[in-house]
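Students often ask why we bother encoding 3D structure as a string. The short answer is that it lets us treat folding as translation between two languages. Here is a chain of 153 residues written in the first language.
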Amino acid sequence: MRQLIIFFATGAYSGYSPIAPGTAGSVVGLVLIIAFCASAWTQTPIAFLIVFAVVFAISCWISGRAEEIFQERDASRIVIDEVLGMIATMYLNPVGWPWLVAGFILFRIADIVKPFPAAWIDRNVPGGAAVMLDDLAVAIYSNIALRIVAHLI
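And here it is in the second language, the structure alphabet:
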């Protein structure tokens, strides 16, 4: 079980990247969008959202266990939050290459800046929920920004 937790928490070990592990985890999210997600949310957006919510809840548990394994709060190796954050950023947005790149950049900048309430969640919510929820907040901002850009173009 420990190895499975590490595998998922580190985004298929992308969190072990010596340079920018969060960015590496975000790339894993992009790969998942290209491979699976985009067609699923265009065909059945409500069902996709339900599955995402279940996966998100499980990811909160995984993140909490990973913090115990790594003996570190929100260890940089834990990137499952970035993986799901990228998926949430792109949810129901266009998924051509320019949009994927734009969503990736928006998400990474927002994840670094951590606008309210992301920074507050990061500081005040305990355990795996904090690991996941701050990136979900960032992803929601990034998703909305991308929607605005798509609407204006």
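Translate back mentally: Residues 45-70 form the longest helix (26 residues). Keep this in mind for the problem set.
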